[in-house]
Amino acid sequence: MKGTNTEIMNHLPLLSPVETSTLFRKLFHNAGITSMLVLDLTGKILDVNQAFLKTFGYVKDFLIGKNFSLLFIKDDKLKQLPENELEEAIKTGSANDENYILKGDGHPIWVNGESILIEESGKQYIIKIVQDTHTQKLLEEELMRKNKEQEKTIKDRNLFIHTSSHDLRAPLANITGLVNSLKESLEDPEDLELTIQMLDHSVERLKSKLNELATIAKGQEEVTKVEFKKELNEVLLDLKEEIKGSEAEIISDFSKAPSINFSRKNLKSILQNLISNSVKFRSPYRKPKVMVDTEKAEDRYIVLRVQDNGLGIDDKDQNRIFGIYSRLNADIPGTGVGMAIVKRMVENSGGKLELQSTVGEGSTFTVFLPFHQDF
After folding, report:
1. For residues 346 and 353, is the Cβ–Cβ distance under 8 A?
2. What's the burial of 354, exposed, middle or buried (CB within 10 Å: 0-12/13-18/19+)?
3. N or C end of the chain, less CB within 10 A?
4. Which residues is 307 bridged to in the sheet?
5. By three-state DSSP, how is residue 235 classified?
6. Fold held by 2-132
7. Taking the domain 140-370, which CATH number applies?
8. 336 neighbors 325 (Cβ within 8 angstroms)
């Protein structure tokens, strides 16, 4: 009888439904994994079951009489999550939440909770039921991370496919032009010999590009020091037929930033696409002129600019040109992937791409490439 009186004395000051409802008392105390707290309408903890103490590592005497907000992390307190939770439960009868709860050792873990408004013996209380979902949450976050990595891998693979097919068009076009020249040179031994030499050189360049793509496919492409002038010259050789047919003038100035630590293949692809587009979308009213230059920005970028005097791009179409398979002018041959490739390459490297253009005057593409060395 004495033990019973002691137990009654321990519970009476709490004035919670645990003492007044036999059904709830059994549910409250017998729960093995369902963590429960009894709160008054201000959030003061009136009682807490053993499942909660065991799961979250608290001593009961430490919690009784304190506001349940002590269980919340600092950021959630600043957002007034405890107050909002109580307010919603009192107003609607129930409030669900998913947030951190601090364990007894101060470490936060993810939980799902529900605060339920009940009335017992003429008094209202909040029953807060808490479920530890930390392991599940970590698994979900890990799954999301892996899914994002997989999405990136798929995007990178698609980018590689688009880049490979796109970058091979120029050397193949060059070879096709030389084959046509070869046919015309059959009766002139000197022209024939020169054309064959040029054809051999183009075939070697195509082999080199295929080897380059194979290296990238194996994951062996490395960031290395590359010189803008050298890579531009390589690109101009690949675009020789396009440039020759358009009589375009290509001017370059890399004196302010002659080199950069970057993927050689990606830099060549960026230059090739930008210059090819400048030549392709030239104005019919003037000789095409393309200016390529670089400079070191004040922050962590090398700025590569490609400026032309071509057709220009209307403001409403400037974002569209970076969409894959997007083509603004169906009369001009193209695949619609070039600028999408450039944008993705630049952004994947941590850089950014800007466009300024005026219809009828020309366009300037400004590429901000990150660097990690002094010049």
Report:
1. yes
2. exposed
3. N
4. 291, 364
5. helix
6. Beta-Lactamase (3.30.450)
7. 3.30.565.10
8. yes
